[in-house]
Design a protein that fits this description.
This is Protein CutA. Strands 2-3-1-4 form a 4-stranded antiparallel beta sheet. It has 3 helices and 4 strands; from the N terminus they run E-H-E-E-H-E-H.
């Protein structure tokens, strides 16, 4: 989605964390730093993946982060610096449309 003068190109970013406490701490630090307008915390997910040649299954929490496209690199660095995983998941998806007032709020709630 291209921005107009009241919005900016925006993204949704997925980050998984190992537990509720880690999710709360990381979500709050992201919003406090104005790296996102909002972070939803989705508890109770189960991730199945291969790590070091072994299939792993772990309970995790998913963070759904709404932010500016221009903040992705800074957000990624923040996650890496504040996450306990060696390789934290940071996956960005474009927001191609949505509520104009919400997208305007997203812009005003994040840093330039």
């Amino acid at each position: 989605m291209e921005g107009n003068r009241n919005t900016v190109p925006s993204i949704v970013v997925y980050v998984t964390v190992p537990n509720k406490e880690a999710g709360k701490k990381l979500a709050e630090s992201i919003v406090k730093a104005k790296l996102a307008a909002c972070v939803n915390r989705v508890p109770g997910i189960e991730s199945v993946y291969e790590w070091k040649g072994e299939i792993q299954t772990d309970a995790e929490e998913l963070l759904i982060i709404k932010t500016r496209q221009s903040l992705l690199e800074t957000l990624t660095e923040h996650v890496k610096a504040n996450h306990e995983y060696d390789v934290p998941e940071v996956i960005a998806l474009p927001i191609t449309g949505g509520s104009q007032p919400y997208l305007e709020w997203l812009k005003s709630s994040t840093r330039d």
